[in-house]
Amino acid sequence: MEYVKLNNGVEMPILGFGVYQIPKEETKKCVLDAIQVGYRSIDTAQSYFNEAEVGEAISECGIPREELFITTKVWIDHYGYEKCKESVMQSLEKLKTDYIDLVLLHQPFSDYYGAYRALEDLYEEGKIKAIGVSNFYPDRLSDICLFERKVIPAVNQVETNPMNAQVKAQENMEKYGVHMEAWAPFGEGRNGLFQNETLVGIGKKYNKSSAQVILRWLIQRGVIIACKSTHMERMKENFDVFDFSLSEDDMDEIKKLDSSKSLFFDHQDPAMVEWFDNIVKSRRQNEDCRKDEKNWYRKERIMDKKVVGIVTIVVALCVVVIGLFFLFNHQELKNKDSGNNNTNDSKNKHSSDGEGAEQDSNSNTSFDGGKVLVVYYSATNNTKGIAEKIAQSLNGDMFEIVPEDIYTSEDLNWSNPQFRVSREHDDESLRDVRLTTTTVDDWDSYDTVFIGYPIWWGVAAWPVDTFVKANDFEGKTVIPFCTSASSGLGRSGELLEEEANGGNFMEGHRFSSSATDSEITAWLKEIGQLD
After folding, report:
1. What is the mean pLDDT of each run of 10 residues along the chain (531 residues)?
2. Which residues of 215-234 are buried (b: 16+ CB within 10 A; e: fewer)?
3. Alpha-carbon Rg of the chain, whole angstroms?
4. 431, 421 Cβ separation under 8 angstroms
5. Residues with a known catalytic role
6. Burial class (CB in 10 A: 0-12, 13-18, 19+), 198
């Protein structure tokens, strides 16, 4: 393990284990597993509602308290001086400890000034070994560091991954002696991060996964990391990043992936602030961060669509008027030249119809279906091949459903009741498969969604069921398709529709793994997706 020295001299492991969205009933085991793997830094928060379970693991793990580094975060609902102080004392009780190594303010909203003063006093009392903030943009971080502040934040935990590298933010933090800590180092797998060619290619050089490359890239930048997994094998993989170093060329290549944009949300967006106000109330009632409404941007995007739609109509009308003007003048000139209006009208009409027919026959876009997304899960790449052909035929986008715990060929041994897919078949409660991400960028913009999957025990593969439950299909046309050696869709499409929130589900289709382009095209024409 490598350590960083915070601005007050406290040493903190550079790689930690986070428990965000781990259910209470699983938290204790996951933390114990992480400690067994070698993690000594555990990151929780008041709003995760699993501090008590983290505390149980701390007290039972057998590791001396001074060898562990525990972080928690004060939730917005507990901001203000008195409420913050009281909430930290409650966190101490839940965590079963006399002190907390690091306490952060979770979000830069509401009365964080009063809350920060409370942390300063608790720090001076010895209840907290270091204090800091989370999700503070450079301007707010500068504010909390200046104006004769008694204690400068030791850490600012922000979204940091190859797609949002936070280079400028890190420079600003270093100016004040604040260490940057990364949440979502893997970006929840968004934008195909785990399959990114640059990361995969660099990983092959060192015999490491793309995830390990990401963690090593952060470590070499001096960024503290909080990463999560509920599976011990993945915990071990994430921990196995201290035996190699990336070259300067590798670091430069990864740097090129940076878009300087969040993969999640913008804290400076007024709609984001309103969303957090609602989340405060939701978590107060549900005591479960997993029940957060994810579509905070839905209203804004709908409004954006309306504005774009109005502008598009106005522009289109202008184009039509200008086009008719030039067409009229052009026609008048031709009529004058030929002296035979009727003949020329007939020829021009025939020519126009012919050009239009030729253009339509070469068009490969979705027919009356709007923007198309092809979602798929593929255990053996058979479904992936069909999905790629559909997307190519319709100029559609693709989204791969990726389980956090990938199914291996051994898992898919149907005849052995000891293997994973058989256990899940026998116990439906095991079918709620965790995915790297269920969120699709620009989800609201898609009108037609194809969903592809292999058939498992007569139903859609369980990861697909998890994805369908997590998304709102209201207003979308949903077209299932499967790859199966013999059976058809069966009830799989109907079962997905029962699980889905809204959506107009079509009957769907079964393909063999060797389906040809012409077979796929014929089906797309049959269902009205190609002209």
Report:
1. 97 97 91 97 97 97 97 97 98 98 97 98 98 97 95 98 97 97 89 88 95 97 94 92 97 96 87 88 84 50 43 57 56 47 36 29 40 92 90 92 88 78 83 88 91 88 92 91 73 85 87 84 88 77
2. bbbbbebebbbbbbbbeeeb
3. 28
4. no
5. 48
6. middle
